[in-house]
Amino acid sequence: MTKKCAGNIRSDRQASPGLQIDVEPCADLLMWGGQPVWPVYDRKQRRVLRDYCRLVGRPIVEVTGQPCLFAPRKQGLVIGVGKGASRAGELFAHLTGRSFISIATLRDLGVRSKETEVILGLSEVLDVDWLERIYGNLQWQRAPGIIAARNEMALVLQALLRSAAAHLDGETSRAATQIFPTFDTRGDIEGPSTAIFGKSAPPEAIINAVESGSDLLTLLTHSDGVDAKISSHLSLCSVKTKHEDGINFGPYCTVTGDCFRHNKPIPKAISDGHIVRPASLRARIVVLCACNVVLDPRAPVAQEYGYLLRLLESGHMGVAIVSWSIVSLNERSLRPLITCLLSGETVGRSVATFNRSAEARTAGLKFCILGDANIRLLESTTKTCTISGMSPHRSKKGQSVLREAAAGVGFLRGYLMNALVDSRDPDTDHLASEALVRLQCYEQLLWTGKPVEGYEGSAGVALRNGVLAFIARRGASVIAHDWTELAEQRRALADGQCIHCSGRLAKYLYKFRNSEIPPRRFSYCGRCHVVQDSPHTEDVLLKCNDGQFELYGELPRRNWAALIRLSCQNDAESVASQWPDDSNGAPARRFAPPRPWPIGPLKCSFVLLSGSSLSIANAPARDERRRTRRE
């Protein structure tokens, strides 16, 4: 017998693509059709599960579950801490197919910690000392998740919701949304797969983005645990204005009735649209990087007044990755975690990898997991097909292309950010910031498997245009200055002969601290200066003959953009021209830039972006005709 729910009817006994629930359960542990059944005891539980199913686009199916004995179906251990966690812990373990044990306190965790995948308990388990011990363990290859709630019934609700999030796949309306309210991104990006908002983003755009749903939502901001800044006009806050449930340790705003973030009475702040409720955040994975996201049980303000517990109680989020200590806001430090998540790795392995990384140690930053640590982001709708339940895989050629593109992105990011720090020109700064935003959009699409090339207005075209616009303004002659200090090692190669003056050509190989970035070849002539600056696997040279430039070496036939920049002593007179393509789609072998040229000795730079790989070839030149005409 089956039941009806929201138009979903099942008349067979095949495994459901959605979530099987029983609204009149006869026991906690139920099965139907060989699949676990979620027992629903009240309207709140039903509403929360329905909200999450809507988020990921999966149906709820009502069935009559059959009682069963607890029997683990896969590896992994769920640990319940304290007497109040036994029921919820056993239910969660059954729904996720893991083993379950109960311990009195976290001190009893002991040697079981290495096999633990989830820890359940009342909100007291969110103790910052224990978070430091658990997530500061650099030996773990996979960090465990924590499921916590205010009381036993709330913990049962969490067990139902977090297990449903682990059970259901599906995609939301957008792959990734990133909010950086303390950073100027120099232009916000909104697209079908990515949204990036800085401090100048309009409030309505941010609200629409967080409420529309994302696979990954990232918020890097200021917080005191009670509220968090989303923009200059928006705050994330649970808005508890009175003492509830015998809680006597509320923030000062509960006494005065004034919102100090927006300097007005709380009802006025709410009516003016300044307050964003935690339940408004809709995402499968939420990353909160801010100070004191987890309020310690011993803190002056009770955990119940923080926005975190309210966020966990909503059905609009699958798992949260949050910081708990004082955080130094740095978008670059956060990037390795986001990159790992977007590559399709599980939350547990992503957090463990990040917490033991050099970036995390340098920034003093660690994250904990609130939910099931085995959740991961899906590949895009263009993901490879699977056969007989086999895991999707990427071909060796596809993996190679992905590695090359990621390596180029890594170099461009370091180069642009270092150039931005060194620059003193506002227009150049703006172009660098714009290029970085396009680079971030390109990288997110790359890691989520979405196409970056081959369509009008593609992310690859936007990236190359943005980087070349910056180089045309800043000058190719200072590119090496912007990136050489990022290298860890310089090794001298055998000297060669300069193709321009036949003099001695010194060659060097630079290796970077990030091993994923390929070494770069750097060639220098004492008379002609920099001759070549490119990845060691690429070899393109430029030569000038009678006002015409010639290219030597292997050239790409697609997904490229290039320019020629003629620089003189007065950089204001320097000019840049787009390099044309040949009939086969590759850059033309010969090209004469339009005249007039700048006066005097020129440094001529051919700048090529192939995919995301940057190569520069230089040649000296002089426009004798213009000099003679002026004289």
Short description:
Keywords: Plasmid. This protein is of the alpha/beta class and 631 residues long. The protein has 16 helices and 33 strands.
Description:
The protein is 29% helix and 26% strand. By secondary structure, it is of the alpha/beta class. The chain folds into three domains: 19-67, no CATH class; 176-370, 3-Layer(aba) Sandwich (Rossmann fold), CATH 3.40.50; 397-631, no CATH class. A hairpin with a 2-residue loop joins β14 and β15 (234-237). α2 (86-96) packs parallel to α4 (152-167) and α13 (426-447) runs antiparallel to α14. Residues 1-16, 380-399 and 623-631 have low confidence and may be disordered.
Features:
plasmid, 3 domains, Rossmann fold, 631 residues, 9-stranded antiparallel beta sheet, alpha/beta, 7-stranded mixed beta sheet, 33 strands, disordered N terminus
Q: Which value, in Å, is the CA radius of gyration?
A: 29 Å
By DSSP (H or I, 4+ residues per run), the number of helices equals 16
Structurally, the number of domains stands at 3
- The biggest beta sheet, please? 9 strands, antiparallel
Unreliable parts = 1-16, 380-399, 623-631
SS content category: alpha/beta
User: Helix amount, in percent?
Assistant: 25-40%
Our estimate of the beta-strand percent is: 25-35%
| N/C terminus separation | 98 Å
Please, what is the average pLDDT? Answer: 82
Number of strands: 33
Characterize the overall form: elongated
Keywords: Plasmid
